[in-house]
Design brief:
- The protein has eight helices and ten strands.
- The chain has 231 residues and is α+β, with helices and mostly antiparallel strands.
- The model has no long low-confidence stretch (mean pLDDT 96).
- The radius of gyration is 18 Å and the shape is globular.
- α3 crosses α4 and α6 (159-167) crosses α8 (186-202).
- β5 and β6 (132-139) form a beta hairpin.
- The structure holds adenosine-5'-diphosphate (ADP) and magnesium ion.
- Residues 212, 225 line the site of magnesium ion.
Length: 231
């Protein structure tokens, strides 16, 4: 059995509808979607050991089935540059989370590679009651939230569908390169969209998938946050 099926079955067994970020990222990796390097630490010693292995700077995040929007509760700290900062960040996140929900179940703290700043895009999927698995693409931040500049296609997606979803965005000129922003690797984004389509079609129990954000680079792209919700 593949990792994806194992993870989904385990969540079902535990009665969880939301997969943890590390679980969602293992699934992404199995489908060829690039994600930041990561490990889950259970104590401060492990945290600094993993940070050394991954390489500084790192990002720390809470891993808890009780916390879906991690940064809203102070559960994400970015750009930690030394073992001392990692150790302090570890305690700070636990403290923030306890303030939010004293009895939150803590699986551990995710230590991950800090992805360099770049244009943020969003890849999503929803299971439409009428059309079935549907893939979404847009640019991050105001483009999605304020301007609703997003495109949808019903899965399965081929390379041409994926390209259209990208090039038909109003914000597409930003991805082609603009002023100080270099052009984004469109083929890498096309690859992520097609892989997402395969992922949700292979696993019909996925109700929602959210890669938010994916950082788009001149060469390649990297998913820094992944969320998967089951039916
Ligand atoms: P949330 O659950 O709040 O959506 P995220 O994992 O998306 O948490 O983290 C919040 C923000 O922190 C992201 O939108 C991104 O800007 C930044 N971030 C998170 N992880 C990384 C990373 N590995 N590298 C760079 N920036 C990151
Ligand atoms: Mg996020």
């Amino acid at each position: 059995m593949n990792q994806t099926t194992k993870i989904i079955n385990q969540a079902k067994k535990e009665g969880r509808k939301t997969l943890l970020e590390p679980e969602a990222k293992i699934i992404c990796t199995e489908y060829g979607i690039p994600v930041t390097k990561f490990r889950v630490a259970s104590n401060q010693m492990e945290a600094s050991k993993y940070a050394n292995e991954i390489g500084y700077p790192v990002v720390l995040k809470i891993v808890s089935p009780d916390i879906i929007h991690k940064s809203e509760v102070g559960g994400v700290i970015v750009n930690l540059k030394t073992p001392a900062e990692v150790t302090a960040g570890y305690s700070k996140i636990l403290e923030n989370v306890k303030k939010y929900k004293a009895d939150a179940k803590i699986v551990g703290i995710l230590i991950q590679e800090m992805a360099p700043n770049s244009t943020e895009v969003i890849v999503g999927a929803i299971k439409d009651p009428q059309f079935g698995q549907t893939v979404m693409f847009g640019l991050g931040g105001i483009f999605v939230e304020v301007l609703k500049d997003v495109n949808f296609r019903i899965a399965p997606l081929n390379v041409d569908d994926a390209k259209e979803m990208i090039t038909e965005l109003k914000a597409y000129p930003l991805l082609k390169g603009f002023r100080n922003t270099p052009p984004a690797d469109i083929d890498a984004l096309v690859g992520i969209l097609c892989s997402t389509s395969r992922l949700v079609l292979d696993n019909p129990e996925i109700k929602e998938l959210d890669l938010n954000p994916v950082l788009a680079y001149q060469k390649g792209a990297k998913t820094v946050d992944a969320r998967i919700i089951l039916e």
